[in-house]
């Protein structure tokens, strides 16, 4: 059998992700804070991109300079007047040759093209079908200009206010200034303060901290300590840190500097008035913490040598203490939730709008774009590419917010009863329903609903919150898992504290209301709601 070479033609289709489409997908999955960081980075890297506020300020300065030059009879004033004139405006015969070019320089994708035949736009397909405005300067026109750090308090954003929040370390350093310490003692206390974790605990053992200080000293000396002196220096540092720890543990907030939870609780109890209850609480903290977590009264009473009534009072006292002293100094900026969409009641329906505070007001720098017209060569091609990148970035941001708004509108339409009655009225909803309705892919809906938030009359929720599977009911209509969790939370809130409801009892109560929910499913929902089991909810 002989083999003969030959040629054959075959057609096939494949999806090519252009850089513009890749950027659109990446921007779509960013959170609000990540999006703001992306905009800041692009503003730093691309000279053709600017904020609308900066452009307005620049134009006002150009106008002021032109008026000053005109009043002095400067012949260049006419040129300055033209530079600051609005698109399409002319100023005498000198402006006529470029009168038709000025509008093109200010508008859309044609603003920075070379004169002559226009280059065809690269083919681009986004997730949605929203048409873009032809003017680069139109995007974000409803959003207020971003305020700097020097703005007044009323105009300050939540992120600006969060950045002014004092940290736990700063709070402790301020207190240390009132202590009369020598240079070495102050350095030891500073070292311990900086070694605290976010909860206010000293997680590293003192021997490890001593060894770290020794290594720092040896690096500063340029040589290790001699063996004969190393032990003496190690012991001196241990005593120094032990003294500094004593000062640290007497600072506010009470409990800071503890090595574990038991020590944290004991430090707080010691600050209370000396009483039988406080002494009993100290005795309980000396016992294994699992006994307290299980509320094992019998063993606590036996091991602490106290009566049951006093043990109940001591446990109630311990429950009122703060297990994380650094909690109120947490980095609030990481916990800020800025809604992307705001839903408010409007007559018989709801108004759904994008949050203007998170929409960047970007535009192409018109002067730089105009200067690129007519230039050729490798350098000019590189700048033309950066100009096109700026335009695509603006369009992709607009695409991102338009898609978020479309998905949010579809969610509100599907979950209308939630916005009227609350989470108990939530209906089952899956990503595919919204994807089919909007003609988007299911993965696109997943990206849009991740780390994007909606402010509603009942609070601010992540868009994913409105999706949930369904549970069967006696009527044949599915009940949303979100609504079932809300019902479990409501049943637990109304239970008798001395006889809390078990998971089996909760399942029976749900069944009495027509919702088929197994005990294991109830336990899973209860844990998701961070509700303790019945034995830990029982009142002492």
Secondary structure blueprint with pairings:
Elements: H1 19-28, H2 32-45, E1 49-51, H3 52-71, H4 77-84, H5 101-106, H6 158-163, H7 168-176, H8 183-194, H9 206-221, H10 227-248, H11 261-270, H12 276-285, H13 289-293, H14 297-304, H15 308-319, H16 332-335, E2 341-346, E3 349-354, E4 362-364, H17 366-371, H18 378-414, H19 416-421, H20 431-438, H21 442-449, E5 453-456, E6 459-462, E7 470-471, E8 479-480, H22 481-493, H23 503-512, H24 519-528, H25 534-537
Parallel strand pairs: 2-5
Antiparallel strand pairs: 1-4, 2-3, 5-6, 7-8
Describe this entry's structure for a reader:
51% of the residues lie in helices and 6% in strands. The chain is mainly alpha-helical and 540 residues long. Among the domains are: 168-248; 261-328; 336-358 and 398-537, no CATH class. A four-stranded mixed sheet has the order 3-2-5-6, with helices on one face. It has a two-stranded antiparallel ribbon with strand order 1-4. Strands 7-8 form a two-stranded antiparallel sheet. Strand 5 and strand 6 (459-462) form a beta hairpin. It starts with 18 loop residues before the first helix and ends with a helix. Mean pLDDT is 76; it is low at 69-156.
Helix-strand makeup class: mainly alpha
- Major sheet: 4 strands, mixed
Helix residue percentage: 40-55%
Oligomer: single chain
Percentage of β-strand residues: 5-15%
Strand order of the largest sheet: 3-2-5-6
* Number of alpha- plus pi-helical segments: 25
> Rg from C-alpha positions?
33 Å
Distance between the termini: 92 Å
How confident overall, as mean pLDDT?
A: 76
């Amino acid at each position: 059998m002989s083999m003969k070479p030959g040629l054959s033609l075959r057609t096939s289709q494949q999806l090519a992700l252009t850089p513009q489409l890749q950027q659109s997908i990446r921007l779509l999955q960013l959170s609000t804070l990540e999006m703001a960081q992306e905009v800041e980075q692009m503003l730093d890297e691309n000279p053709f991109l600017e904020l609308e506020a900066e452009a307005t300020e620049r134009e006002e300065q150009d106008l002021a300079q032109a008026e000053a030059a005109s009043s002095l009879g400067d012949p260049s004033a006419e040129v300055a007047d033209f530079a600051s004139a609005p698109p399409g405006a002319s100023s005498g015969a000198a402006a006529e040759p470029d009168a038709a070019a000025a509008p093109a320089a200010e508008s859309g994708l044609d603003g920075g093209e070379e004169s002559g035949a226009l280059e065809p736009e690269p083919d681009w397909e986004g997730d949605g079908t929203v048409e873009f405005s032809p003017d680069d300067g139109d995007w974000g026109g409803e959003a207020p200009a971003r305020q700097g750090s020097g703005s007044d308090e009323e105009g300050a954003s939540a992120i600006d206010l969060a950045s002014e929040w004092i940290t736990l370390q700063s709070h402790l350093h301020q207190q240390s200034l009132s202590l009369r310490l020598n240079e070495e003692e102050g350095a030891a206390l500073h070292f311990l303060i900086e070694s605290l974790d976010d909860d206010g605990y000293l997680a590293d053992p003192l021997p490890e901290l001593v060894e770290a200080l020794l290594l720092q000293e040896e690096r500063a000396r340029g040589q290790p300590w001699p063996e004969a002196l190393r032990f003496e220096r190690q012991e001196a540092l241990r005593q120094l840190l032990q003294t500094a720890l004593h000062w640290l543990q007497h600072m506010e907030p009470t409990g800071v500097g503890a090595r574990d939870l038991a020590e944290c609780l004991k430090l707080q109890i010691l600050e209370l008035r000396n009483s039988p209850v406080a002494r009993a609480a100290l005795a309980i903290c000396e016992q294994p913490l699992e006994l307290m977590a299980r509320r094992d009264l019998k063993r606590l009473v036996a091991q602490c040598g106290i009566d049951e009534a006093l043990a109940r009072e001591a446990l109630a006292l311990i429950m009122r203490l703060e297990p994380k002293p650094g909690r109120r100094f947490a980095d609030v900026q990481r916990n800020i939730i800025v809604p992307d969409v705001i839903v408010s009641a409007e007559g018989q329906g709801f108004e759904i709008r994008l949050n203007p505070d998170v929409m960047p007001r970007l535009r192409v720098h018109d002067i730089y774009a105009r200067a690129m017209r007519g230039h050729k060569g490798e350098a000019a091609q590189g700048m033309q590419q950066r100009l096109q990148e700026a335009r695509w970035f603006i369009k992709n941001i607009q695409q991102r917010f338009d898609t978020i708004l479309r998905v949010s509108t579809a969610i509100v339409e599907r979950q209308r009863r939630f916005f009227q009655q609350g989470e108990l009225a939530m209906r089952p909803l899956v990503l595919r329903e919204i994807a089919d309705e909007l003609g988007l892919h299911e993965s696109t809906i997943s990206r849009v609903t991740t780390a994007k938030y909606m402010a509603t009359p009942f609070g601010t929720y992540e868009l994913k919150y409105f999706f949930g599977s369904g549970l069967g009911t006696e009527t044949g209509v599915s009940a949303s898992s979100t609504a079932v969790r809300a019902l479990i939370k409501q049943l637990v809130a109304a239970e008798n504290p001395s006889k809390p409801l078990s998971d089996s009892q909760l399942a029976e109560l749900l069944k009495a209301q027509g919702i088929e929910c197994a005990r294991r499913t109830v336990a899973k929902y209860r844990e998701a709601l961070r509700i303790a089991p019945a034995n830990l909810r029982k009142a002492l």
